[in-house]
Specification:
CATH superfamily of one domain: Gcn5-related N-acetyltransferase (GNAT)
CATH architecture of one domain: 3-Layer(aba) Sandwich
Number of helices: 4
Radius of gyration: 16 Å
Number of strands: 9
Helix content: 10-25%
CATH class of one domain: Alpha Beta
Structural class: alpha+beta
Length: about 190
C-alpha cells in the first residue's frame, strides 16, 4: 500500500489484510474475504496531535510507554512525522525526523498502530514512505531502537532490511540496554 495519496479506501479482512481500492499494483497481502470498508487518511502530523497519541500509547502497547514520547517530538518534528486516521479516529502514527546533527541519517523514534489495524502492512507503509522522504532529503541511512524484550519490533525491523545490533548496555541510561537498528537507503527504497 502506497501512502503517496492523502486518502485511500481500503478493504479490511478478518485476517487483517489490506488492499487499497483503485490501485494498479496489488499490495503484498491478498484480500480474500472483505468484511468492511474503511477510509484511511494519511497526513502530516501537527503539534496538537500529541494529546490523541499520548492518550492511546500505553493502551496500544499494553504497558507504560508514553514517557518515551514527550511532546517535544511533535512540537519540533511534526513536519516529518505522519498520522493516519480512519472513521474511528487515530489508526496509526509515525514519529520520525532527519537528524539535525547527522543530516545523512533519518531516525524513526516511534511508530504505533491501533490493534485492529496491526498486520495490515500499515506500519511497513509508514516506514517505506519515510524511507523515500528521507532519501530525497539527503539521508543515506535510517536508524531506530527498541527494548531487547520487544521481539515483535526486532522481527519487524529485520523484515524491512535493518541490521540489528545489541543489546547495547546502558544505551538508554544506566541499566537500560537497547537494541539498535540501522538500514542503508538506496534509490530503490
Amino acid at each position: 500500500m502506497s501512502l503517496r495519496g492523502a486518502r485511500c479506501a481500503v478493504r479490511r479482512t478478518a485476517g487483517h489484510g489490506i488492499v487499497a481500492l483503485g490501485q494498479r499494483t496489488p499490495p503484498r497481502r491478498v484480500v480474500r474475504h472483505a468484511s468492511r470498508v474503511d477510509t484511511l487518511a494519511v497526513r502530516v502530523a501537527r503539534p496538537d496531535d500529541y494529546g490523541a497519541i499520548a492518550a492511546v500509547a500505553d493502551d496500544w502497547w499494553g504497558r507504560p510507554v508514553s514517557r518515551a514520547l514527550p511532546r517535544l517530538f511533535l512540537d519540533h518534528f511534526h513536519g516529518s512525522s505522519r498520522v493516519v486516521e480512519d472513521d474511528h479516529g487515530l489508526a496509526a502514527f509515525l514519529i520520525a525526523f532527519r537528524s539535525p546533527s547527522r543530516p545523512d541519517v533519518g531516525y524513526i523514534h516511534f511508530v504505533g498502530v491501533r490493534p485492529d489495524h496491526r498486520g495490515t502492512g500499515l506500519a511497513r507503509s509508514l516506514y517505506q514512505d519515510f524511507f523515500r522522504r528521507a532519501l530525497t532529503e539527503g539521508c543515506r541511512e535510517v536508524e531506530a531502537i527498541t527494548a531487547p524484550s520487544n521481539a515483535g519490533s526486532i522481527a519487524f525491523h529485520r523484515s524491512l532490511g535493518f541490521t540489528v545490533n545489541g543489546p547495547v548496555p546502558d544505551y538508554d541510561g544506566p541499566g537500560r540496554p537497547m537494541m539498535t537498528f540501522r538500514r542503508a537507503l538506496a534509490n530503490s527504497t
